[in-house]
Specification:
Strand content: 5-15%
Helix content: 40-55%
Number of strands: 12
CATH class of the largest domain: Alpha Beta
EC number: 2.7.1.100
Bound molecules: adenosine-5'-diphosphate, magnesium ion
Keywords: ATP-binding, Kinase, Nucleotide-binding, Transferase
Subunit structure: Homodimer.
Distance between the termini: 64 Å
CATH architecture of the largest domain: Alpha-Beta Complex
Largest sheet: 5 strands, antiparallel
Number of domains: 2
Pfam families: APH
Number of helices: 15
Family: Belongs to the methylthioribose kinase family.
CATH topology of the largest domain: Aminoglycoside 3'-phosphotransferase, Chain: A, domain 2
Oligomer: single chain
Strand order of the largest sheet: 1-2-3-7-6
Shape: globular
């Protein structure tokens, strides 16, 4: 038997290799010889092609056996495509319409064929340009609550959840990336680190010498590695969100695994705060004051929507092994269920702030920087923005147990500006 051998696609071979697939022929049109193919991947890891035929279009995403950003010297298994596919199907069931529809999956070739989102653009890009998206925050807050609540022991049947924990536990290498790049590398002289130098050298040295910060970062890593609470997206930053003025979609869940709910929430909010702190580097003649207000409001809306939707699901869909209704509502003690909800949300709140702080550090000190700061050409100006984010991140990580409201946090961000 001939073993199927992995082969990376390119714009020439894609129609030859996928032109036999009946699903695709139906979507794109039978004349596969005239499909138009473009490679558009701007991510750190994978190949992404837009394929357009006479009848329609699709995205073809293929994993490579290495990290695209670094090259073949950093191998990374193809199975991340399998986890992305399975995460997409679960997210589609838990928050319908929020992720691209999957048309086809080929595990051996690590290919996912999915809905081409157009004219959507990456949210991060839009925010850098100063565009506001009135529905995005509400949509993202709902996505967080629905995928995380419905992907947890609050809701799932025990056997289904345990089988799923086992399935995603094999996403070892992508978890390892987060464990190293997010939680540890920024706090020592790791080989893949880089930062705006020499401007940030002093602050970088101070952060690496900051015992309290390093202990907090490791406590958060401890949570990340051990708290298998819900199926996470795992990479939910503003570069994993695509938008039009009215629509919001979430892509790229290849880092999915069972981890702490607060991780997805904190990463997302951190990326809004970083965009806020980068605005100074992008405003030209346009005044970005409205934009700054919009960004801080968006943070509040994401969190408040998350809270209220999570609470709604707690009251209406709490059917898992935790906090059973038999203990509370069924004994006419709905306040007991509310008390438990407050405890759960309080833990998420404190941990979310910590994860947000650490996310800001790794984006400025680690390997994977974000465009919000990277696109600020003047290194002095960039460093001024990054300095605020680093100090803010340190504050969140170390003081998270004493911070009581987003109004307080947003006030802090405004005073940094
Ligand atoms: P990576 O895992 O390498 O980060 P992504 O899934 O984030 O790859 O995709 C990289 C880029 O490809 C995105 O930033 C976006 O521009 C484009 N892209 C990915 N999926 C879609 C899609 N379903 N529709 C439209 N564009 C997409
Ligand atoms: Mg991506
Ligand atoms: Mg990715
Ligand atoms: Mg309450």
């Amino acid at each position: 038997i001939e073993m199927p051998v992995f082969e990376a696609l390119n714009v020439e071979t894609l129609p030859l290799r996928l032109g036999q697939n009946t699903m695709l022929l139906q979507r794109l049109g039978e004349d596969w010889g005239s499909w138009k193919v473009r490679e558009v991947g701007d991510g750190n890891l994978n190949l992404v092609f837009i394929v357009e035929g006479s009848a329609g279009s699709a995205i073809v995403k293929q994993a490579l056996p290495y990290v695209r950003l670094v090259g073949e010297s950093w191998p990374l298994p193809l199975k991340r495509s399998f986890f992305e596919y399975h995460a997409l199907t679960r997210q589609a069931a838990r928050d319908p319409g929020r992720v691209p529809e999957v048309f086809h999956f080929d595990g051996e070739q690590a290919i996912i064929v999915m809905e081409f989102l157009a004219p959507h653009i990456i949210l991060r890009r839009g925010l850098i340009e100063g565009n506001q998206y009135p529905n995005a925050a509400r949509d993202l807050g709902q996505f967080l609550a629905r995928t995380l609540f419905r992907g947890s022991d609050f809701s799932m049947k025990a056997a289904a959840r345990k089988a799923d924990v086992a399935l995603f536990a094999d996403n070892v290498e992508l978890c390892d990336i987060t464990e190293s790049l997010v939680f540890s590398d920024p706090y020592f002289n790791a080989p893949l680190n880089r930062h705006t130098a020499p401007q940030l050298d002093g602050l970088v040295a101070a952060l690496r010498a900051d015992r309290d910060l390093k202990v907090e970062a490791q406590r958060l890593k401890h949570l990340f590695a051990t708290k298998a609470e819900a199926l996470l997206h795992g990479d939910l930053h503003t570069g994993s969100v695509m938008v039009t003025p009215g629509e919001t979609r979430v892509i790229d869940p290849e880092f999915a695994f069972y981890g702490p709910i607060a991780f997805d929430v904190g990463m997302l909010l951190a990326n809004f705060w970083m965009n806020y702190l980068a605005q100074q580097g992008h405003e030209r003649d346009d005044n970005r004051r409205d934009m700054r207000g919009y960004l801080l409001e968006a943070v509040v809306t994401i969190w408040e929507t998350f809270r209220s939707e999570f609470s709604h699901l707690w009251r209406t869909e709490r059917s898992g092994i935790l906090y059973q209704r038999a203990l509370f509502e069924d004994q006419d003690d709905s306040l007991g269920a509310e008390q438990a909800l407050d405890e759960v949300l309080h833990d998420i709140w404190q941990d979310m702030l910590g994860f947000a702080g650490i996310e800001m550090h790794r984006r400025i000190l680690g390997l994977a920087h974000n465009a919000d700061f990277e696109l600020i050409e003047d290194p002095d100006l960039r460093a001024r923005c990054e300095t605020k984010a680093l100090k803010f991140g340190r504050h969140l990580a170390c003081n998270r147990r004493h911070i009581h409201s987003l109004a307080e946090v947003n006030g802090l961000v405004e005073r940094l500006e």
